Amino acid sequence: MLTWVIYDIVKNKSRTKVAKFCKEYGLYRVQKSCFLGDLNKNEVDELGLKCKDLINLETDAVYLFPVCEDDFRKIRLLGNSFDTLLVSGKLQALIL
User: Which of 20, 81, 82, 93 gives 20 to 30 Å between its CA and that of 5?
Assistant: First the structure.
């Protein structure tokens, strides 16, 4: 399922590690503190646990928003945005 990961983390070290985890799970950076990609339920749970261990629960926040395909298609993008086909896994790569 497509999942948004959005965070507000005070410490650079923790913020960098959360971004690294997001990339390791194959998520695409949409903005500086926002990632999006296709994760299964177990991956969402694992990523959530890893983030929880890294952040200060009193000062930081990490949001994991699963989005169904129907709702994702309703998203309106304005300006310089991300490639929706790439993020949703609909874009197939051809390797020669």
Answer: 93
| Residue 21 burial (10 A CB sphere; 0-12, 13-18, 19+) | middle
**18-32 tens-digit pLDDT:** 999 999 999 999 899
CATH topology for 2-88? Alpha-Beta Plaits (3.30.70)
pTM above threshold 0.85 = no
Please report the sign of the dihedral spanned by the C-alpha atoms of residue 51, residue 66, residue 60, residue 26: positive
Going by C-alpha positions, the residue among 4, 47, 1 that lies closest to residue 29 is 4
Cα 83 to Cα 91: distance, rounded to the nearest angstrom: 9
User: Any idea where the domains of the chain sit in the sequence?
Assistant: 2-88
